[in-house]
């Protein structure tokens, strides 16, 4: 392939893809990426890749997950706030999952997240990596399975950190303060230092961050009483409320949230550091080691209830998230004869402690009377109406997750100058997730036994089940999960490109063989007993060791392929066609009942598969003052995994997964960058999608939107446009920037019970700044129109709530580079 230009270190700070920067001579600069696991400029890489370079990350003040996803029009998210996001690329969204329930039996994401060379993808919650001191963010849309493996079905997002620089002392800091309309003040501090230790041999880099984000959602006063007419899942004959019963002798106690009322209660605090070292062992071998630690503390909720008010909710117990993780990764690079050798590994340890208000469950829980009602119960055939007391329905849940992930990859690259270029290797991944969920019913500290005596509910793991905590739970924990999930994967992969006509025509072939084992052990337990005459029952529940004995481990073995061709008629034109496959592994369900004629939940659900046909182009025009990159694609998605809470199917209050449908996606995406003058750059990016469900599964265990419906989080159109002008006034460099983002309407889920329409929206940001020598300062305004963007509508708390962007915010940022 023709080399378009020599890439300098300075070019790493530039951007192609969604945005561009202006070179001194008015051309659009290029950025180096490793999207093919080789070092290439974006214009040389024969794949679709969107990048945000370090300069643009700073220009756009990108800090966390929500920030950078909003800058990429082909990327959306099913979001609940900090630490609670699921990525969607090219409209390949199916169904959401309660993040505080999704660790043990949640679907594996279909978009892979990488931190440098290490995959940090895991079930349920994506890792919300704070974006400090990054070299770039790369987004590779479409299946990337041959090189990046499981979960790279819809695409791959890669966060590339800045590495130590030899023989240079560098340091800098930035500080930001901002205020949000009708919300709290926020402040942020970031700093870095690059320290050479041994000339040409050893250097270290340290990055620090502390970001305190003020709240803007109010928890307003309210009351709630259990109302049987609201809960459509009460089952006459199994609860104390039979159809047509006279409830006049039942006392329903009221829950009040007075002690939890608070303005701007959704605060978030990111704190952490990253320390990296680089050692040139010899002229041909070097070692990089990166250690990162991050704490995330968040209070309140980050989605509001429009039925209560604008940016208002009513919560009746605590909402708190504390997440701590540390990650150590290493990369050894060298040469064996003509082969480049790269061994990279990593160890991630993540701990999540989340407490959530679960009061909304009173609207849908099939066993609510068992949990919180002390009743004299008679069933319909007795002809006597119930009497007694139903406690206040202020419910709470605590989720504890301990996750470890250990990955290793050994790969080899042939030289770039060879006519046949190959990348091949082996990969290993070992994940263990310990998940404990305690669902508390605060008004239900006591039960009546069969003799009518009051006592405390004792809820212990089922006999014979593998447990994390073998002890009985505290009184009031009427249901709990104690489940361990393991995933072990080994893969062999390779990709080869042959120059059929050097500098003009290439062909590429790739494949990946994988073997994935998924295991689920433990128990889900009920402690019934508030109904007089039933008594406490600590043996009721689901013993996964026994139920899934014939399905453990769930093993997947297969091979996926990729083929493509590249045509480069001139050094400024590149066209490519790619056919590729992607996959997301299946898994196991709690709550299944092998042999049951009424419980249709499968114990195991299968891998879903994606086939992609893509025609792409990369074009530089007018002496590289204009760049237009894009792709047209068609994707076929088979056996789509979906999730649903469906007690009428499971026979219990467990969420489960199944293969629910097939779909087709047509799309067009592109980005245009124009270096108008030496100081002015205009950039625009867009994605157009046409998504459609084409077939529904015959089992019908999950009620899905009808054939012809759109997929979830798949707007027909998303786009943005940004203009940045830089000029000099004496010794001062000034800049002004404006940006507009737009998204058309979309749906939140493909599951009918959870499906909500999210309205279209547009947002507008402005900034202006000044720089002199090493100092810089900037004023900025985000969401000037104070738009309530409906980024996601969640029904996961049984009350629909809208996750939105931050209201209008003004701020000042200052910085200094030593």
UniProtKB/TrEMBL annotation:
<dbReference type="Pfam" id="PF07715">
    <property type="entry name" value="Plug"/>
</dbReference>
<keyword id="KW-0813">Transport</keyword>
<dbReference type="GO" id="GO:0006826">
    <property type="term" value="P:iron ion transport"/>
</dbReference>
<dbReference type="InterPro" id="IPR000531">
    <property type="entry name" value="Beta-barrel_TonB"/>
</dbReference>
<keyword id="KW-0812">Transmembrane</keyword>
<dbReference type="InterPro" id="IPR039426">
    <property type="entry name" value="TonB-dep_rcpt-like"/>
</dbReference>
<dbReference type="InterPro" id="IPR036942">
    <property type="entry name" value="Beta-barrel_TonB_sf"/>
</dbReference>
<dbReference type="Pfam" id="PF00593">
    <property type="entry name" value="TonB_dep_Rec_b-barrel"/>
</dbReference>
<keyword id="KW-0410">Iron transport</keyword>
<dbReference type="InterPro" id="IPR012910">
    <property type="entry name" value="Plug_dom"/>
</dbReference>
<dbReference type="GO" id="GO:0009279">
    <property type="term" value="C:cell outer membrane"/>
</dbReference>
<keyword id="KW-0998">Cell outer membrane</keyword>
<keyword id="KW-0472">Membrane</keyword>
<feature type="signal peptide">
    <location>
        <begin position="1"/>
        <end position="23"/>
    </location>
</feature>
<keyword id="KW-0406">Ion transport</keyword>
<keyword id="KW-0732">Signal</keyword>
<comment type="similarity">
    <text>Belongs to the TonB-dependent receptor family.</text>
</comment>
<keyword id="KW-0408">Iron</keyword>
<feature type="domain" description="TonB-dependent receptor plug">
    <location>
        <begin position="42"/>
        <end position="156"/>
    </location>
</feature>
<feature type="domain" description="TonB-dependent receptor-like beta-barrel">
    <location>
        <begin position="262"/>
        <end position="784"/>
    </location>
</feature>
<keyword id="KW-0675">Receptor</keyword>
<keyword id="KW-1134">Transmembrane beta strand</keyword>
<protein>
    <submittedName>
        <fullName>Outer membrane receptor protein involved in Fe transport</fullName>
    </submittedName>
</protein>
<keyword id="KW-0798">TonB box</keyword>
């Amino acid at each position: 392939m023709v080399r378009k230009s020599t890439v300098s270190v300075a070019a790493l700070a530039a951007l192609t893809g969604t945005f561009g920067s202006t070179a001194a001579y008015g051309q659009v600069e290029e950025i180096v990426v490793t999207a093919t696991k080789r070092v290439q400029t974006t214009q040389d890489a024969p794949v679709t890749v969107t990048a945000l370079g370090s300069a643009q990350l700073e220009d756009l003040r990108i800090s966390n997950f929500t920030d950078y996803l909003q800058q990429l029009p082909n990327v959306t998210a099913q979001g609940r706030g900090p630490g609670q996001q699921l990525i969607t690329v090219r409209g390949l969204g199916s169904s959401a999952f309660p993040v505080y329930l999704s660790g043990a039996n949640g679907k594996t994401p279909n978009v892979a997240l990488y931190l440098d060379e290490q995959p940090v993808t895991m079930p349920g919650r994506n890792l919300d990596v704070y974006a400090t001191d990054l070299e770039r963010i790369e987004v590779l849309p479409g299946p990337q399975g041959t090189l990046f493996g499981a979960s790279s079905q819809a695409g791959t997002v890669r966060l590339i950190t800045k590495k130590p620089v030899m023989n240079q002392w560098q340091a800098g800091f930035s500080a930001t303060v901002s205020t949000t309309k009708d919300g709290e003040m926020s402040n942020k501090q970031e700093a870095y230092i690059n320290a050479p230790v041994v000339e040409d041999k050893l250097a270290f880099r340290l990055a620090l961050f502390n970001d305190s984000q003020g709240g803007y959602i109010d928890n307003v006063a309210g009351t709630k009483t259990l109302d049987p007419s609201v809960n459509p899942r009460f089952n006459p004959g199994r609860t104390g409320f039979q159809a047509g019963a006279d409830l006049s002798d039942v006392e329903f106690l009221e829950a009040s949230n007075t002690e939890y009322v608070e303005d701007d209660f959704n605060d978030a605090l990111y704190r952490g550091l990253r320390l990296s070292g680089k050692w040139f062992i010899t002229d041909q071998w070097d070692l990089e080691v990166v250690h990162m630690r991050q704490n995330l503390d968040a209070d309140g909720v980050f989605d509001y209830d429009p039925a209560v008010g604008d940016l208002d909710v009513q919560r009746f117990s605590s909402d708190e998230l504390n997440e701590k993780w540390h990650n150590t990764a290493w990369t050894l690079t060298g040469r064996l004869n003509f082969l480049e050798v790269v061994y990279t590994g990593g160890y991630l340890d993540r701990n999540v402690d989340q407490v959530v208000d679960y009061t909304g469950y009173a609207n849908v829980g099939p066993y609510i009377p068992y949990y919180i009602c002390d009743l004299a119960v008679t069933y319909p055939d007795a002809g006597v109406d119930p009497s007694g007391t139903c406690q206040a329905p202020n419910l709470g849940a605590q989720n504890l997750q301990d996750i470890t992930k250990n990955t290793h990859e050994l790969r080899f690259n042939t030289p770039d100058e060879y006519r046949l270029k190959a990348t091949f290797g082996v990969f290993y991944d070992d994940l263990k997730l310990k998940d404990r969920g305690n669902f508390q019913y605060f008004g239900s500290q006591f039960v009546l036994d069969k003799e009518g005596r009051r006592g405390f509910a004792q809820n212990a793991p089922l006999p014979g089940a593998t447990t994390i905590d073998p002890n009985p739970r505290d009184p009031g924990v009427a249901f709990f999960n104690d489940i361990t999930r393991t995933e072990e994967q080994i893969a062999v992969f390779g990709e080869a490109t042959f120059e059929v006509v050097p500098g003009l025509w290439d062909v590429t072939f790739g494949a990946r063989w994988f073997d994935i084992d998924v295991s689920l052990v433990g128990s889900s337990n009920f402690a019934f007993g508030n109904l007089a005459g039933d008594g406490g029952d600590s043996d009721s529940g689901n013993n996964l060791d026994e139920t899934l004995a014939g399905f453990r481990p769930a093993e997947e073995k297969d091979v996926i392929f990729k083929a493509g061709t590249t045509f480069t008629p001139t050094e400024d034109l590149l066209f490519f066609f790619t056919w590729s496959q992607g996959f997301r592994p299946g898994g196991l369900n709690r709550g299944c009942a092998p042999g049951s004629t009424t419980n249709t939940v499968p114990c195991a659900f299968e891998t879903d598969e994606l086939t992609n046909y893509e025609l792409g182009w990369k074009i530089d025009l007018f002496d590289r003052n204009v760049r237009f990159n894009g792709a047209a694609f068609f994707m076929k998605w088979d056996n789509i995994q979906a999730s649903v809470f469906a007690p009428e199917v499971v026979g219990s209050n467990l969420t489960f997964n199944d293969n629910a449908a097939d779909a087709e996606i047509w799309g067009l995406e592109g980005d245009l960058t124009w270096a108008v003058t030496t100081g002015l750059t205009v950039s625009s990016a867009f994605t157009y999608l046409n998504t459609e469900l084409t077939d529904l599964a015959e089992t019908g265990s999950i009620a899905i939107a009808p054939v012809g419906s759109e997929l979830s989080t798949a707007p027909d159109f998303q786009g943005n446009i940004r203009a940045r002008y830089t000029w000099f006034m004496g010794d001062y460099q000034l800049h002004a920037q404006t940006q507009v983002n737009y998204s058309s309407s979309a749906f939140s889920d493909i599951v009918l019970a959870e499906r909500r329409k999210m309205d279209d929206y547009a947002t507008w940001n402005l900034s202006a700044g000044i720089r002199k020598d090493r100092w810089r300062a900037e004023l900025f305004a985000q969401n000037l129109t104070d738009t309530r963007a409906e980024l996601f509508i969640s029904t996961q708390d049984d009350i629909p709530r809208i996750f939105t962007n931050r209201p209008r915010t003004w701020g000042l940022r200052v910085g200094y580079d030593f």
